[in-house]
TrEMBL record:
Keywords associated with the record: Dioxygenase, Oxidoreductase
InterPro entries: Intradiol_dOase_C (IPR000627), Intradiol_dOase_core (IPR015889), Intradiol_RC_Dioxygenase (IPR050770), Protocat_dOase_a (IPR012786)
Oxidoreductase among keywords: yes
Originating organism: Nocardiopsis sinuspersici
The protein's name: Protocatechuate 3,4-dioxygenase subunit alpha
SUPFAM superfamilies the UniProt entry points to: Aromatic compound dioxygenase
Family according to the record: Belongs to the intradiol ring-cleavage dioxygenase family.
């Protein structure tokens, strides 16, 4: 019986940047949708350099805090053209943008979750995607009661999950490692 070497691990990139996006991927709603906001940011690696070939993927509730999914027995409300999902590759400067509607609070088993957007990041050199959340700065009371957000004891780490208001939307930079690293969840 012969022994074969272990097959090397496969990373999630860089080809995902080529194969996963589609033209309207960054639009969870169409441009001109009332109440639409942009979520924009930059993805940085552990050395603080931009990551020009990552993919950002978002998943969220509608403005009423409902999901159009069988696991949500309340069902989604009607928001024409809202698909609750976005996917955007980063550009040469590491930037991304998703046009969406701001979600509502989501009921959970340990109390209401503040309005948030779930974000997955796929990038070269990573064996798996990383998952984080974006919270909204004006939701101070909801954020202070959110069971996930308050479970992060370090205030500086917790702050990496709160976007900042900017222009026609919000800014949410992602730092994959190093100083100011974004909090990621083990799911």
């Amino acid at each position: 019986m012969s022994t074969y070497p272990t097959t090397p691990a496969q990373t999630v990139g860089p080809y995902l940047h080529i194969g996963l996006p589609w033209p309207d991927g960054p639009y969870a709603v169409a441009e001109g949708t009332p109440g639409a906001v942009w979520i924009r940011g930059t993805v940085y690696d552990g050395a603080g350099e931009v990551v020009p070939d990552a993919v950002i993927e978002t998943w969220q509730a509608d403005p009423d805090g409902r999901f159009d999914h069988p696991d949500d027995p309340r069902g989604a409300r009607s928001y024409p053209g809202f698909r609750a999902f976005g996917r955007c590759p980063t550009d040469a400067d590491g930037g991304y943008g998703i046009l969406t509607l701001k979600p509502g609070a989501v009921p959970g088993p340990h109390g209401d979750q503040a309005p948030h957007i779930d974000i997955s990041v796929f990038a070269r050199g990573m064996l798996n995607r990383v998952v984080t959340r974006l919270y909204f700065p004006e939701e101070e009371a909801a954020n202070a009661a959110d069971p996930v957000l308050v479970g992060i004891e370090d205030p500086q780490a917790r702050a990496t999950l709160v976007a900042r208001r900017e222009g026609d939307g919000y800014r949410f930079d992602v730092r994959l490692q190093g100083e100011g690293e974004t909090v990621f969840f083990d799911i």
